[in-house]
Request: fold
Amino acid sequence: MGANRARIVSELKLHWDRWSSDNDQIALFLCGSVASFMSRHVVHSKALHNRKTMEMCLGPLSPRESSQFIPRRGLREKAQLHMCLGGIPKYLEQIDPRESLERNLNRLAFTADGFFIAEFETLFKEQFRSPCVYEEVVRALAQAPGGPADLAKRVGSVRGGGFQDQLRNLERAQFIRPYYALSPHGGKHRRTLRWARRLSQKSSARSLGLVFLPKSP
Reply:
């Protein structure tokens, strides 16, 4: 809804301030899974500054919740399901509980029209405007971890504000994770990035939710 329409946030703010903020019958929930858009244009939006009541990060389902998609299977298979699909609701919905986990994964990942065949490319196209750049970063980190300077060199990019923003967007979408190494000599912490080896949700592994409640009387 908000893709390439950053102005929609300002329009929403105008509507909320004029007609909705004093109506105790209205509570507004904003939820989005495109991390870069939600962070830049919603969470850190100047238009919505000091207007949110609550911010929530919606993560994957727990192992217990994931197991409910195959209730008649054993504990081992339920554990394997969660380890394979990471508790991502969209992926768990593809599972046929009448079939074994092995048959399900063969159908979803190893057939010509399987659900996961084009999922990698689809995720990046939904998340980012320039998916090729982000794909190169993730592919490089899948080979070996590295810091921002080393990573920029490996993907042929210039280390600067634009590249740092791209890394932050990948972190927000949980494609990569930062690790900080402590120096034994008390020097600066060295930041190392690693590919988060887990499946992400159809649009993201995590969704960000904001709640706007009417003003107190």
Notes: Residues 7-20 form the longest helix (14 residues).
